[in-house]
Amino acid sequence: MRYELMLPHQIRKAIAENLPVVLPLGVLEYHGEHMAVGMDTLAVIKMLELFEKEADIVILPAFY
Q: Which of 10, 22, 29, 60 has an alpha carbon 20 to 30 Å from 43's alpha carbon atom?
């Protein structure tokens, strides 16, 4: 569940169910002309989205 898309009742339910909360961390850095500067963080977010299909987690907005 993406935190920024959750409604208040969904947040209360996640707290009541003691769901794990994850904070995607990454950096913005130059990787060359062939890749986006946010690639490190985008990879972390994608991995969490894949993991979310297997487990109930709350994904916070990324911290760069």
A: 10
**For 6-35, what is the mean pLDDT?**
95
DSSP state of 60: P
Distances (CA, A) of 51 to 3, 22, 34, 45: 15, 11, 27, 10
Burial environment of residue 59 by CB neighbours within 10 A (0 to 12, 13 to 18, 19 or more)? buried
Give the domain ranges of the chain.
3-59
CA distance 62 to 58: 12
Counting Cα atoms < 13 Å in the Cβ hemisphere of 17 gives 13
Residues 11-35, mean pLDDT to the nearest whole number: 95
